[in-house]
């Protein structure tokens, strides 16, 4: 297995990840019922986010907390939900890639989920 090296690798990772996550019994409903995620429009934005995060290419310009905060106002997102997101993300990375960048992606996913959960919990006083 090769490491995550290009935008195409990020696109592949995210496509596979979202195919799994929208069907996930624990958190899939966030993407299919709570926000009815439009993958055609969402994937390029989230790929920009990950390209910025992993390759330090400034592609993403936005606030990733805001849409998640809005989603959590509709249906509260708990630590267990974020943990599940991280688990599926890491499993997807491990199924496709191996190497330093793959490990960094998994570490960043954990960090992002932790920060997002704390900010949402603080903002909504869960």
From TrEMBL:
SUPFAM superfamilies: Globin-like (SSF46458). InterPro entries: Globin-like_sf, Globin/Proto. It comes from the Bacteria. This is Group III truncated hemoglobin. It comes from Reichenbachiella carrageenanivorans. The lineage of its organism: Bacteria, Pseudomonadati, Bacteroidota, Cytophagia, Cytophagales.
